[in-house]
Design goal:
Low-confidence stretches of chain A: none
Oligomer: heterodimer
Order of helices and strands of chain A: EHEHEHEHEHEHEEEEHEEEHH
Number of strands of chain A: 13
Largest sheet of chain A: 10 strands, mixed
CATH architecture of the largest domain in chain A: 3-Layer(aba) Sandwich
CATH class of the largest domain in chain A: Alpha Beta
Shape of chain B: globular
Distance between the termini of chain A: 31 Å
Order of helices and strands of chain B: HEHEEHEHEEEEEHEHEEEHEH
Number of helices of chain A: 9
CATH superfamily of chain B: Glutaconate Coenzyme A-transferase
CATH superfamily of the largest domain in chain A: Glutaconate Coenzyme A-transferase
Number of domains of chain A: 2
CATH topology of the largest domain in chain A: Glutaconate Coenzyme A-transferase
């Protein structure tokens, strides 16, 4: 049974310096509030894992929480580049950022392998690209039945995965719907997990297309209404598209970025 | 309609939409590909099936989505599936007919770079977003349509990084690599259309947009651009196409 915790206690207990941490969410249900709590608690040396490191990872990287990034697409969706990510890669600011770069298909399959308790994933992918030259975790394996050479990637096993969902019941069974991305696999691949939810309810009424994560498969659940903002939670909030556009200017300059983090993340008087 | 009535970007989007046959299944990214695919759906291809990598199969948005995971895509989809399922069950086995890709750099054999430009991989002059779904889209879709504005910076002799494979170093490379999809059959730009020469796999200018000259296309290409013997000129956008495109684009501005 999942423990019901506050966000601050959940991050303090489950996310440690040097951990491999995955915050997943595919445009929808991105756990922004949890990312901000990681920044507030000053975590350092994290290996951040995420298929689409977007604005929340830009913030974590710019705030100095990360030393490594495992990813497949790093951009501000529909807007452009991530300036803090670029500054870290191109100028080691505020710290050098080591990259382990994959494709979406590769990352998704690595989570599936982790959730399945397998040592590696197998797929048709990366062939002929320059990615295997630079990413040591892209290898090949020969099919024992056909002899075909396929791509092999090590399973992803984050120390902790954090996701956001619509709601949970009182014993921590979690229900999410809409675009659910790779969250189920990321939670089941991780050693520990924290789910932030919009609300607790007495009973989880079925919803079409739902994914239910049993409470006994989750470490902790925290109630964080609006915890996905500026991303969205289907049925609860809409995406704050203006914020994503505004982020481009906020993040372009180091001082503007630092001032924004100080005002909207480090002090909680003006929440983001 | 005369060239004064529409922009080069509008012509490019209309040309891309026309490329999509009714009833085919199309893997769509945000931006120009999504605009072109939705334009096709509201004009000549109402049965076009749009697949977004966020897991939305058969999305039928009545406005342009602002992101790959826009709620309108999930709300209007035949099915919403997980991201591993999109890539493993739908893309990898060859269930997608057409994949749309953009490019930061494109070479003469249709290889695409969206990873790094200049310097080295570890210390690049420009760090781009990276691969996303593109390598496997380029490998596994029945065919690939590339939409990209044409300039010497983008149309380069050699890409700095191969993120997605076109024809490799020439004909036969795709088969040697075991790539099952057909590769880039069409590159649509703001100047015209390039298609691979069947003998060499080299992108060749086959169509120009109205009012564009071969010299302009050559000047915007970083390799000696081959021109097809039967070079033709695209029909300009029809009033209906243009009205539909502008109505779609107005939905972007209307979305908060």
């Amino acid at each position: 049974m999942a423990k019901i915790v506050s966000l601050a206690d959940g991050i303090a207990e489950l996310v440690h310096d040097g951990d491999v941490v995955a915050l997943e969410g595919f445009t929808h249900l991105i756990p922004f509030a949890a990312g901000h709590e990681i920044i507030r608690q000053g975590r350092r040396g994290l290996t951040l894992v995420r298929m689409t490191p977007d604005v929340i990872y830009d913030q974590l990287i710019g705030a100095g929480c990360a030393s490594r990034l495992v990813f497949s697409w790093g951009g501000n969706p529909g807007v452009g580049s991530l300036h803090r990510f670029r500054d870290a890669v191109q100028h080691s600011w505020p710290a050098p950022l080591e990259l382990e770069e994959h494709s979406h298909a590769g990352m998704a399959n690595r989570y599936v392998a982790g959730a399945s308790g397998l040592p590696f994933a197998v797929l048709r992918g990366y062939t002929g690209t320059d990615l295997p030259r630079h990413t040591a975790t892209i290898r090949t394996v020969d099919c024992p039945f056909t002899g075909e050479t396929l791509t092999a990637l090590p399973a992803l096993r984050p120390d902790v995965t954090v996701v956001h969902a619509q709601r949970a019941d009182r014993v921590g069974n979690v229900q999410m719907w809409g675009i659910t991305g790779v969250q189920k696999e990321a939670v089941l691949a991780a050693r520990r997990s924290l789910v932030t939810v919009e609300e607790f309810v007495d009973e989880l009424t079925p919803v079409p297309g739902q994914v239910v994560l049993p409470g006994w498969a989750i470490t902790a659940v925290a109630r964080v209404p609006g915890g996905a903002h500026p991303s969205y939670t289907q049925g609860y909030s809409v995406r704050d598209n203006d914020f994503y556009r505004d982020w481009d200017a906020i993040s372009r300059d180091r001082d503007t970025f630092r001032a924004w983090i100080a005002r909207h993340v480090l002090t909680t008087e003006v929440p983001a | 309609m005369s060239a004064a009535d529409w922009s080069a970007d509008e012509m490019m989007t209309v040309a891309a939409a026309r490329q999509l046959r009714d009833g085919t299944v199309c893997f769509v990214g945000i931006g120009l590909p999504s605009t072109a695919a939705n334009l096709a759906r509201v004009t000549h291809a109402p049965g076009l099936v749009l697949v977004y990598e966020s897991g939305c199969l058969g999305a039928k948005p009545d406005r342009l989505p602002l992101s790959i995971g826009d709620g309108i895509l999930a709300d209007t989809a035949d099915a919403v599936v997980s991201v591993p399922e999109v890539f493993n069950y739908w893309l990898q086995p060859g269930r997608i007919d057409v994949g749309f890709l953009g490019a930061a750099q494109l070479d003469r054999h249709g290889n695409i770079n969206t990873t790094v430009i200049g310097g080295s991989y570890a210390d690049p002059a420009v760090r781009l977003p990276g691969a996303g779904g593109a390598p496997e889209i380029a490998a596994s879709c029945g065919e690939v349509v590339v939409i990209v504005r044409q300039s010497r910076r983008t149309f380069t002799g050699r890409v700095d990084f191969v993120t997605s494979v076109g024809y490799g170093t020439g004909p036969g490379d795709r088969a040697r690599l075991g790539l099952r999809g057909g590769g880039p059959r069409t590159v649509i730009t703001d100047l015209g259309v390039l298609e691979p020469d069947p003998a060499t796999g080299e992108l060749t200018l086959t169509r120009l947009h109205p009012g564009v000259t071969v010299e302009q296309a050559r000047a915007a290409t970083g390799w000696p651009l081959a021109v097809a013997d039967g070079l033709t000129t695209n029909e300009p956008p029809t009033p209906d196409e243009l009205a539909a495109l502008r109505a779609l684009q107005a939905t972007l501005k209307a979305t908060p």
